[in-house]
Amino acid sequence: MMPRLSVWFVRASMIYLLAGFTLGALMLAQDGISYAPAVMAVLPVHMEFLLVGWLVQLAMGVAFWIFPRFGLPHSRGNETLIWASCLLLNAGILVVALELWIPAVFLIGRILETGAVIIYAAGLWRRVKPHGT
Amino acid sequence: MPTPTRWFIKTSFVYLALALIAGLLLAARSLFGLTALGGLFPVYIHLLVFGWLTQLVFGVVYWMFPKYSAEKPRGSETLGWWTYALLNVGLALRAIAEPVQSVHPNPFAGWTLVVSAAIQFCAGLTFVLNSWNRVREK
Ligand code: HEM
Question: How many other CB atoms are there within 10 angstroms of residue A107's CB atom?
Fold first, then answer.
């Protein structure tokens, strides 16, 4: 059974997939028929949405769902920590995207993402273990 | 393992091999200064991240995500096949047309890229449509 927190991670990753593909398609069409050279500016946001928003976020959501759990009633560890990580990660991605308008916020976004990943690793650390222990 | 999943995963391995071959060509280009291989870098990246990683993910999601319903555990198989076809036709068109467009820009290659962009977007859309309702607390 997929926990609510994984539902949020995975659904968010699918939204980033669509947003990232949209930006990629706009750039690819520009490479083909040069209808609006300015669209190439979205390249860093395309990379951010697809590498972090889609691939990394999907992996985080699925790992939280399927990694070995603790005893009965099958606890997934400190869920509050992972909720915080999910919020920080998504805030970070959106702040990085704001770099299109305010270049300097890029660093703030990356700090949020780094925090998200550290908290996530700490929260899942002890679930990297054999089943049933 | 359902049939579409097997196609997704095996094709993803083919793309991984193609990506590594493209990587070898890129290395040869910088060693020997082959200008004829323009436009290959973005193709290399997308063979990896789209042809291999994303396609592998699409196949595993189709197989392992919570069941849509007892009668249709994997949602619509037709939509699954559409995703497969769109992803692979879209990416193949890009892999051919992008290097051509960068070395000898011409309207045919250019419009092929536009079509390829639309097709790849539709691959993402059909994947999300078919998977969205399987992502739930059940
Ligand atoms: C599925 C996951 C994807 C990931 C992780 C991804 C990632 C990337 C990355 C890392 C780059 C930078 C490469 C470079 O510097 O040239 C890039 C560029 C680009 N991507 Fe994607 N991409 C994805 C899908 C797509 C799709 C579906 C499309 C088109 C429909 C697309 C179109 C483009 C274009 C046009 C560029 C710019 C290439 C240039 O510099 O001319 N991408 N992408």
Answer: 12
User: What is the ipTM, given to two decimal places?
Assistant: 0.95
Does residue A132 form part of some domain? no
Residues A55-84 pLDDT 10s: 999 999 999 999 999 886 778 989 999 999
Q: Which domain holds residue A15?
A: 4-127
Cross-chain CB nearest to A32 (options B65, B113, B123): B113
Torsion of CA A131, B2, B7, B12, to 10 degrees: -20
Does the residue A133 lie in any domain?
no
Of all residues in chain A, the one with the smallest CA distance to B136 is: A7
Q: Is there an atom of ligand 1 within 6 Å of A43 CB?
A: yes
Domain positions in chain B are 3-134
Q: How many domains does chain A have?
A: 1
Residue whose tokens read 């070898």: B24
B100-118 tens-digit pLDDT: 999 999 999 999 999 999 9
The whole-angstrom separation of Cα A127 and Cα A63 is: 10
| Cα A48 to averaged position of ligand 1 atoms, centre (Å) | 10
Chain A interface includes B104 (CB < 8 A): no
pTM assigned to the model: 0.95
Distance B50 CA to ligand 1 centre (A): 9
